[in-house]
Fold this sequence. Notes:
Chain A is an alpha+beta fold. Chain A is built from 16 helices and 24 strands. Chain B has a five-stranded mixed β-sheet with strand order 2-1-5-3-4, sandwiched between helices.
Amino acid sequence: MSTIGQPVDRVDGSLKVTGAATYAADCRLTNMLYGVPVGSTIAAGELLSLDLSAARATPGVVEIFHHDNFEKLREAPSTGMPDGPDPIVDERRPPLSDTKIRYYGQYIALVVAETFEAASEGAMLVRATYRPTDPATPLGGEPTGPPREENARGDVDSAFAAAPVRIDAVYETPVETHNPIELHATVAAWADGRVTLYETTQAVVNHRRVLSVMLGVPTSHVRVISHFLGSGFGGKLWPWPQSPLAAAAARTLQRPVKVVVTRPMMFQNVGHRPYTHQRVRIAAERDGTIVALDHDSYNTTSILDDYEESCGEGTPSFYGAPNLRVRSALRRRHTGTPTAMRGPGAVPGLFATESATNELADALQIDPVQLRIQNEPEHDLSLKVPFSSRHYVECLTLGAQRFGWQNRSAEIGSMRAEDQTILGWGVAGASWIAERFAADVSIELRDDDSAEIRCATQDIGTGTYTMLAQIAAHELAIPLERVHVTLGDTDLPPGPISGGSMVTASIIPAIVRAARSAREQLARNGGSKATGHGSSPATFGEEHPTVSRHSYGAHFVEIGWQPQLGRLRVRRIVTVIDAGRIINPKTARNQIAGAMVMGVGMALLEETIYDSRTLEPLNRNLADYKVATNADVPAMDVTFLDYPDTHVNELGARGVGEIGLAGVAAAIAAAAHHATGVRVRALPITIEKLLL
Amino acid sequence: MTVSPSPSASPLTVSITVNDAAYRKTIDVRTSLLDFLRETLGLTGTKKGCDHGQCGACTVHVNGRRINSCLQLAAMHDGDDITTVEGLARDGLLHPVQAAFLQRDGFQCGYCTPGQIMSAVALLSEPCGSGDADVAEAMSGNICRCGAYENIVAAIQDARHKLDA
Lengths: 692, 165
């Protein structure tokens, strides 16, 4: 029986529950040194001098690298597509390359010592003198650059002005920090002019490209290994400065060097989701037909790099507004460079547009589920092509049924739990792109009836090892237990980045082809040993797509509000997801539920707070930057529609990494409004915002 | 301000039992129990997530009770009996909590998992109420950023029922 669609246990599960799964920082090499970076304590200005005398006198300290003695690394361009030949890196400036300070925590030195304790003490004893300047102030104001029109149809300004019911509101999402529990880490070891990097990266192939450019060695001389990652949520897509720091230090000292980023540095030196400011204008006829949608946003970025959040990524295809415009701009400030965080663009974007849709429903006095169904487009009005497989309306209707939405009383504060807690109900929709990156896979059939699948992609916790084993077992018609999966090593055939919810979709065509080629070889040559290769091209970035490929979802939320206690809790969430065929409902459900939990955090808890004068991130630890804990978890009901989308690949599987987070915060904000009457348009929804 | 190298960096010899194996090691007195396990003994199953006692990834048992090993100095544990995630399985058989985590998919990336499992095993002998909410509360010192909390609670409840039976 095929294991496709079966809730099989993770094939790497026993390694993870016994502590045998090895992550980057678990690597211990003979003669290894420990590096601890020193961060700037100002956000803007000039580093004038470093007093290294006390640090150098620390027993065990071997070397202290800084801008004067660190090798000049090359800047990697950041122009490519995620699976193109060009390296991608968000923070392009190589570490220690000049004395300008552009963000708080920017590395100004690396102390390398025989032990972690000695390196830490040395790092604490480095004394820096600065000439500070005033940092670009944090929030508000106007974008630094002109807006870029990303999408437009019809005449949005005229249609908005002429419409009888209009919403014009500004929504804000704060800086969020990925905070995977695994710290970013690099162990670098050189031999014969070649370097091996034990990394925690969502993209081993790109990491090799970037480090090859920065270190000035051919890609064939860089090997990147990432067997297990303690997740990433986008924060580990592209290399961050600790990697070239470790690699160059190891080359100079001719000894392996381990650098593990500290938790405070996780808020400063490895990216974050930027602050977004989004003005949404949405207008409808009195019958609820949306006639205009204008999504105008900017996000903050760093001084040197242009990170675009693209909040309007999902806006053009979600509803049938005939007049639409999506614009975006950037605002610079002295922080580290932002990067993609789970559902970049769509997740903050849908908070704004789905909140505005709920406000429009209230203004129209139309049920928000009905308003959405009423504005379902027949095709993608922006691309002017059909949808590959869109079941958003069924997500809404099935979700409403499972939630009991028909019992909703629309009046503010009108619903009560048995203990008199005020209940609030809210809904929001979700969409996320469903595309493929290029992928190469090889399959080796062995004479003991087992098979090994090889691909230089990586499992960030999503279940890639398991999913690949299931698909290979299915295609080769052998038991799952006979399939060995090898990932996370650039010595393997190049595989996709673990980003954009695309690994599953990308790998399926390649693995199907590899299995077919192996089987053909067997048929031709006889015997029981064969090697097959499969390659499949990307769909992401196609200039003229013939279908519009997305996943969809709907979230229904119940919150409880106790104004006497100032207590707001998410009580339950019902989510219905249309993500094509589900390869493994056990791991897929876990991902969706985990994303819903992250959505509770995004809605109620998460915000990186910067000192407005110094741009120092003040809550850079896991006690003050609050994420959802076990006790914050609501009752969760997850349903997959399971319609195969064969426009994406043979098996019809899309991906489930991001879609579960999209829309959750908007549904919670709507529920909070329904309970309290307070419309919170700037996340997170903290108690004080409800009491004001 | 003049800061001189710390005189306390002189080494110290400790005898610590870890997973039933006796170790006698000369250590830097500044070494945390976590770094002692990982870097000195090479028991890397125990993870570092914050080094501040805020995430729970480094949870181990000291004389049967769960603690954050990042908040302890190894020098404080001379003579103590430590259990880490590597010490739970016996004769190749997973501990019931480990088996339940695997079966219930109580993790995704697996990085916080050793800490979750060590907390869960300790919880079995703590005065924890029987409800899911009691377990969720008692497990809230262990952050799982992947958000596998619901499955973690289910796994622990499965293991409790199995061990009670």
